[in-house]
Amino acid sequence: MLKTDRLVLREVERLDSSLLTTLLLDKEHGKFIPPLFSSIDEINRYHIELLKDKDQLMRTRFFFIIENIKTRESIGFVSLKVLSSEIIGGTGGFGYIISKNYKGRGYATEAAHRILDFGFRILKLDNIEASIASENAPSIRIAAKLGMTHTETVKESFTINGTSYDEMKFNIRINDFKSVY
Fold first, then answer.
1. Domains of the chain, each with CATH number or no CATH
2. Of the four, 17, 57, 114, 164, which is 20 to 30 A from 178 by CA?
3. Residue 103 contacts by C-beta under 8 Å, 6 or more apart in sequence?
4. Phi/psi at 173 (nearest 5 deg)?
5. What is the pLDDT of residues 46-95, one digit of tens each?
6. DSSP string computed for the chain
């Protein structure tokens, strides 16, 4: 479990199925994320994979439910995946979805900052990346607040509901990250 001043980031549990379904199927929650799942059955299979990942000795995927520390209400999720690893260091990629009812309150920035801290301090990664749709201004602002650097733009990288989007790639190196934890 990871904590911030306002949030608890806890590992996914069996009871999180409906939250995952809501966040991953409702287009308003992740409107700039390419559809990863087309049915509840696919999400349920993914949920089972996430639960199995928790028991792996050499994990490469970490998936946390974001809860409001005061109300214990689940408000989204944040994930970190080890993309490459060396004996010392490696690269990770992270992403998040915040429920539409909680956007604009700084929760995504707070959870993202905490997951970067986890990746650098606990997993000993050297570099963490994020891919953001060029039209997703709030997430671009979050990347800037985190100290991430824009490294590349891939034109028309993915399509959502018939609209093509450019993918902006950001990264941050351990030496550029300022932890508050």
1. 2-127 (3.40.630.30)
2. 57
3. 138
4. -95, 155
5. 888 888 888 777 788 999 999 999 999 999 999 999 998 776 689 999 99
6. -EE-SSEEEEE--GGGHHHHHHHHH-TTTTTTS----SSHHHHHHHHHHHHHHTT-SS--EEEEEEEETTT--EEEEEEEEEEEE-SS-EEEEEEEEE-GGGTTSSHHHHHHHHHHHIIIIIS--SEEEEEEETT-HHHHHHHHHTT-EEEEEEEEEEEETTEEEEEEEEEEEGGG-----
